[in-house]
Specification:
- It contains five helices and 14 strands.
- The protein has 273 residues and is of the alpha/beta class.
- The protein has one domain: BirA Bifunctional Protein, domain 2.
- Strands 1, 2, 6, 7, 8, 9, 10, 11 and 12 form a nine-stranded mixed β-sheet that branches. Strands 4-3-5 form a three-stranded mixed β-sheet, with no helix packed on it.
- A hairpin with a 3-residue loop joins strand 8 and strand 9.
- The radius of gyration is 21 Å and the shape is globular.
Length: 273
């Protein structure tokens, strides 16, 4: 076989390929929203299927996230968004400080609340009825831009709150979304494993804020916690807020919301039965 032949020599086995290492963008790269020119997700332009789970316990939902994430990695399902409320639970992320949980075990039992150490980033936070929790199970493109992913979660919260008359914003050096730089409206804590996200965000809508007195939220002493209801002076329409949050997340990811819940979004956004 000559050097300029268009055919490959098949007499020798192909060279073995090592495992592909997912890359990270440079940490000082500027933020860029997801676009056709600079997509964030592997299925950019595809479909985001939203699952409304109601009020559910934390541990089974954590297990469900891991199961869906594994299916997403195997390309058996498309991108998913779980929207739900949790029964009262305190969670501490990787590296979180147990001292930021002020309630004793006896106090937690009296409150009928759990304390669970989990595998997301961030410190201690609370989930409970009246708070919208969003868990995107999406596949990021390589190189994995986790910072841009978190910025898109933040932007979705900010836009959602604004639609209901509350101005929230980022604060340099502080995680989550804040009102007037002092009152935390939403918490963010994520995990990315082998390119697929789990965990996500919690937006305070109509929840009882006294639950946060039992902890130092996210380990930030001296800062307050708020909700849409507290800022507005009246209850917010939880279902409408959840729907708006789903729209903002889909838009930020560069995906289209599924038309209905009767079919499943496949790996590239195609509809499956």
């Amino acid at each position: 076989m000559t050097a300029d032949t268009p055919f490959r020599d098949i007499s020798a086995p192909p060279a073995a390929e090592g495992p592909r290492r997912l890359q990270r963008p440079k940490p000082n790269a500027p933020f860029r929203p997801a676009s056709d020119g600079h997509p964030l997700l592997a299925a950019h332009g595809g479909v985001l299927a939203v699952e409304h789970l109601g009020t559910v316990a934390y541990r089974p939902t954590w297990e469900l996230q891991d199961e869906l994430a594994e299916q997403r990695r195997a390309r058996r399902i498309g991108d998913r968004l779980l929207l739900l409320e949790h029964f009262p639970v305190y969670t501490i992320g990787r590296g979180g400080d147990q001292a930021n949980m002020l309630a004793s075990p006896d106090r937690l039992r009296a409150l009928d609340a759990e304390l669970i150490r989990i595998d997301r980033g961030g410190d201690v936070t609370f989930h409970g009825p009246g708070q919208i929790v969003a868990y995107p199970i999406v596949e990021l493109r390589d190189p994995l831009d986790l910072r841009r992913y978190v910025r898109i979660l933040e932007a979705a919260i900010i836009e959602t709150a604004a639609r209901f008359g509350v101005h929230g914003d980022r604060v340099d050096g502080l995680p989550g979304i804040w009102v007037d730089g002092q009152r935390k409206l939403a918490a963010i804590g994520v995990r990315v494993r082998r390119g697929v996200t789990t965990h996500g965000l919690a937006l305070n809508v109509n929840n009882d804020l006294r639950w946060f007195d039992e902890m130092i939220p996210c380990g930030l002493a001296g800062k307050g916690v708020t909700s849409l209801a507290r800022e507005l002076g009246h209850a917010a329409p939880t279902d409408e807020v959840a729907d708006e949050l789903a729209r903002q997340l889909a838009s930020g990811f560069g995906l289209r919301l599924a038309d209905d819940a009767g079919t499943i979004a496949g790996p590239a956004g195609a509809r499956e039965q």
